[in-house]
Amino acid sequence: MTALAVRMVHEFRHEVEERVEADDAGPGRLVRAYVRVSVDPAADQTLAQERQALEVILGTVAEVHEIWRADSRWWKDALATDGLPELTRDLVIDAADGVWATVEWGDPYPPGRTEALRDRLLALTHEWGE
Description:
single chain, mainly alpha, 6 helices, globular
């Protein structure tokens, strides 16, 4: 189960790295990639629900919690160097995680809402200096 948790952690990191836009050199580029992966309107909801169910099961293993804590520290360090103010960064990341978690409750957003939320979160990463 720990090997599966490590694999899931690394797959998510890879997905985020793949979604960093090559022409995006400004502050918040990693945060924007994180949002694109977490708030993906094209994501298969059934697959997302299965992943969340698997994470609940993995969460019963104490060793997995240490893997997740280490991953959380990794993300905090990586995102801290991304150039956004801490409050903006935390707000956007936590909101993206929250949008992703709505799948768990089985009540998806109406059509177009996920895209609007994603776009607003991405916009916030550009507006912080205004």
